[in-house]
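ENCODED BACKBONE
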Amino acid sequence: MSLRDGPEYTAEFKEPSVRFVFEHIKADESRYSACQRLGPKLNVKPVTLYNWVKIATPKPSKPSAAAGSMEDLKAQLAEVRKENRELARANQILQDAATFFGAALDRRSRK
């Protein structure tokens, strides 16, 4: 090992370090920013930690463009619209039932 290489890290150190990043990354934070923030806590250069995280990140099985194709989006939209209609129908049934039973209770209290 030359002086320029820096310390060698074992897999036993890398794996928990990467897990630490994934567990402590903020919702609106990029992986690089998380490594910048968390690297000093682990006594690791942020760029080294980021490289470990990149390697550990699972690769998508399909290209992302195929997952968001127009046909997929149209199918999702149709499904969401159908679900919305069903929920609106159920909501109307519940409102009608509440009105009916509320009126019945009101008639009883007036007797």
Notes: The first helix runs from residue 11 to 24. The chain is about 75% helix and 0% strand. The chain has two domains: 7-58, 74-111. Confidence is low (pLDDT under 50) at residues 1-5.
